[in-house]
Amino acid sequence: MANLTGSWNPAAPSKTVKRASRAVRRAWVRQADLSADKPLTEREEQQRQAVERFTHWTTRDDWDALMRELFVRVVDGCPFAVGLFTHEVNRGSRRLRAMLNYNGGQDKALDYVARRFKLRHYQHIAESLEGLEPHERYDLYKIVSRGMGLPLYSLVYRIAHFVDPDCKAIVVFGGERLGGQMETHLKFAAGVLEQPTKTRAGGSAPAPEESRYGELIAALRAADPRKLRQSGLDEERWTEVRKIVTGLSAIQDRFPQVLKAKFALLSKLVDDPPPVAEPWGPHSRA
Predict the structure, then answer these.
(1) How far is Cα 18 from Cα 23, in angstroms, rounded to an integer?
(2) CA atoms within 13 A on the CB side of 39
(3) What H or E segment, with its residue span, contains residue 85?
(4) For residues 167 and 254, what is the distance between their CA atoms, to the nearest angstrom?
(5) In terms of Cα–Cα distance, which of 168, 153, 184 is closest to 79?
(6) CATH code, domain carrying 150
(7) Are residues 227 and 167 in the same domain?
(8) Three-state DSSP state, 93
(9) pLDDT digits (tens, 9 = 90+) for 129-158
């Protein structure tokens, strides 16, 4: 028997209409807000900071030589290294540059990567955290999603250049990480990245601008703006700080957040320097 306790509303939508409405809502895709001025959400800010922490930086401007040296010292023959990947421009178009570790004995992993890892995968890993998780012990990322061209749980060592944002690379590790050897290879990698630019073929030295950027970035990393403000700036210190700020102002937007913050503090010191500390004390004047 029909339930007659409720009243029928002819204006209420039927079940068929409701299902159709839900289907339309599911099919609708929100368009991304592409406004350049939109502030980062808390999650996006955490992701950006993680990218900077787990990205390894260099000032070397002999990029090709750097890639070859990293491959020889860190990848080639290592039992748990898969390869080194970067990109190059050929006739105006980008292509993946892969240096695979055929001396490492990981035939299955190499075959998988050689067949599946493409330029789009490399660009995604170099620029995004989607599908990546920080490693629990090392400054490396783990691949935790399928469809990225690498075996699951491969480890990624990300490299970027302080000055040239187009210079990026990744080293991929996989398989068993034999006791103590991962630390050794990561130290090798850090040592190669921190070396000064090599002398170029034919004996020519690196351009003065390239060498200067490297020196100024090293000085910025070593500076302690808070101590400088507390102790005051004598003429020598003020000159050093001004040299750092003036020399790096053109590339400050490319710095990771830690260096951006330090650069901003040094800039304030230049604009509003603290009083010079008087070594004889405030009560020793005649």
Answers:
(1) 9
(2) 2
(3) strand 81-90
(4) 12
(5) 184
(6) 3.30.450
(7) no
(8) strand
(9) 889 998 888 889 999 999 999 999 999 999
